[in-house]
Amino acid sequence: MGVELPAMPVERTRLLDPPLEYDQLREEQPIVRVRFPSGRAGWLVTRFEEGSQVFSDPRMSAKRPRHDVPPEEDDDHSSNETAETIDPTFVMMDEPDHGAYRRLLAGRFTPKSVQAKLQPYIDRIVTEHLDAIEAAGATGEPVDLIEHLALPIPCLVICELLGVPYADRDKFHHATEVMMDVSKSRAERDEGGRWLQNYITGLVADKRSDPESTGLLADLIRTSEQDGSILTDKDLIDIGVLLLFAGHDTTMAMIGLSVLTLLTHPKQRQDLADHPDKVGPAVEELLRYLTIVQFGLGRTAKEDLEIGGQAIAKGDLVVVAMPAANRDPRAFDNPDEPDFDRKITRHLAFGYGVHQCLGQNVARAELKTILPRLFQRFPGLKLATPLEEVEMDTYGTNYGVRKMLVTW
After folding, report:
1. Please, are residues 103 and 109 in contact by the beta-carbon 8 Å criterion?
2. Which of 17, 36, 384, 405 is most buried, with most CB under 10 Å away?
3. Can the peptide bond before residue 96 be classed as cis, meaning omega within 30 degrees of 0?
4. Across 243-399, where does the E strand assignment appear?
5. For strand 382-383 and strand 31-35, is the pairing parallel, antiparallel, or unpaired?
6. What is the mean pLDDT of residues 152-162?
7. What is the pLDDT of residue 64?
8. Nearest to 104 by CA among 251, 232, 247
């Protein structure tokens, strides 16, 4: 009879900190076999340098099994015909295929492109939403910052970027929540994924038939028609699905957690208020400190190899616990305290290596715009409930805040 594997730590004692068990694992068993919440077994990596190696080593494949679903649901769909696999996108491809797709998109996500094409729009909608928050708070009732700021801004931005009707935001956000909820079955989660696929399928067809259509998907369609590029309708749908769900849910989580951090850390809040020029370093530090991908990102070993002195066999699943790696004291002094003067050369909040998050500069632009303006507009902003009553998302792939009532 085999030895029972320990479970991956998931319970948080403090709202803004990763599970405390990570501290001990990082010191004593930085690469350890665990059972993930889905029941699947694999290696868990909790240190920064070893995690960086997993993400950057070409012997590790992005064509990984989904460690967030049970193996039997991943391998056998006979019990439920609706539980078919949702097709992977280019983020689960290896080179050279991954690079070919990424190069088609990368130019649209550079800091220069985001600044020129999206920043004016972000500036405008942030101002509009802060105006609306002020009007809603005039009644004296608390305002939910997730509903009025953290969710709508990323939805508007990704709709503007892709050319998606904003009127459909509630539907695609609900589908995203279902797809990323690890407490649900594979069949339930794939229902959300299929809704997004069907939605983007219809959108691609509409844009193909309308030469005046706008947005990234329309641009890609025109480019592929003009130069005979590799993009098929399936490629366009896969890209659209990926960017639609990843482009709003992740940033929503970071906005909510960042605001909650500043509301509960008066020193850091005052530092940002006194030195608004620190917003860039502050955002990088918040990305490191909060690291929303709470169940980690995985890779599969393409051959036998060694990571941090641990032998990894061909075919083994290796998952980097990014919240733990970004709190590694070997890489960051006093890592459990947000420090806006910290000189960060890199962190793992967006992953690392060739698969590093494509939309990271869009997320940065939204955060750098929202955080200083929110606290400048509402210097007396405070939680309207005790901290322990703030509703958190503990089951989503991304850790975040579901509801945050504030007054000022």
Report:
1. no
2. 36
3. yes
4. 297-301, 305-307, 310-312, 317-320, 382-383, 391-393
5. unpaired
6. 93
7. 66
8. 232
Rounded CA-CA distance 357/364 in Å is 12
> pTM here?
0.91
pLDDT at residue 76, rounded to an integer:
39
Torsion, Cα 373 378 380 382, to 10 degrees, reads: -80
User: Strand 317-320 and strand 41-45: pairing?
Assistant: parallel
The CA-atom distances, in angstroms, between 179 and each of 49, 69, 352, 357 are 31, 11, 24, 19
pLDDT tens by residue, 31-85: 999 999 888 899 999 999 999 999 999 999 998 665 555 665 554 333 332 233 4
Rounded to an integer, what distance in angstroms lies between the CA atom of residue 360 and that of residue 267? 27
What one-character DSSP code corresponds to residue 8?
P
Residue with token string 């929540």: 177
Which of 233, 211, 238, 235 is CA-nearest to residue 222? 211
Contact status, residue 299 vs residue 312, Cβ threshold 8 Å:
no
Helices (H), 210-265: 216-227, 233-264
Question: pLDDT per residue over 192-208, tens digit each?
Answer: 989 999 999 999 999 98
Q: Which whole-number Å values give the CA distances from 253 to 77, 112, 147, 290, in the listed order?
A: 32, 25, 12, 10
Rounded distance between C-alpha atoms, residue 256 and residue 162, angstroms: 23
Helix H or strand E segment including 98: helix 97-106
Q: What is the pLDDT of residues 217-247, one digit of tens each?
A: 999 988 877 766 667 888 889 889 888 888 8
Q: Which two tokens stand for residue 142?
A: 């608390």
